[in-house]
Amino acid sequence: MSKRREVALQAIQAYNEWNIDAIMAYRDESCTQEVLPKSLKRPPMDNATYRAAFGSTMPLFKNFTVMIDDVFEDKAGNKVAMWVRSTAETAAGPYRNEYVMMFDFTEDGSKVVRVREFVDSAISKDFFNKLNDKVEETGGTWDAAAWGVGKKAKGKL
């Protein structure tokens, strides 16, 4: 198994562990992540921004699980793409989404320098708006603006 593929699989495992340090560990210090398609209007995030935004979202999801449907590797381009699905439980109800995650690597394949995460935009928009409403109802905290909805809610869920 190539180093790229191994690191990409570790990235998915980190999401299954639901630990922000594990999620950040496979990234190069220059890594950026963008949730796509662009119609979702989610800005690219550097590591610090992603850690803060995703970290604020993690407590809202329970039993987050990612399942891999397929893996594609581009050796010449130093990239790995994965077709994955995720499930979780939230205060807004069950979460289910489908993604294509595209990882670009350092020259030696040991770290990720760019993540492009294509989500099911219809599900994503609807769900994150519902989640934002639930967080606002309960006075919760999360960085809604990072996920393309509402504004930063105050308080704690």
TrEMBL record:
InterPro entries: Fungal_Meroterpenoid_Isomerase, NTF2-like_dom_sf, SnoaL-like. Residues 11-114 form the SnoaL-like domain. It comes from the Eukaryota. This is SnoaL-like domain-containing protein. It comes from Neoarthrinium moseri. The lineage of its organism: Eukaryota, Fungi, Dikarya, Ascomycota, Pezizomycotina.
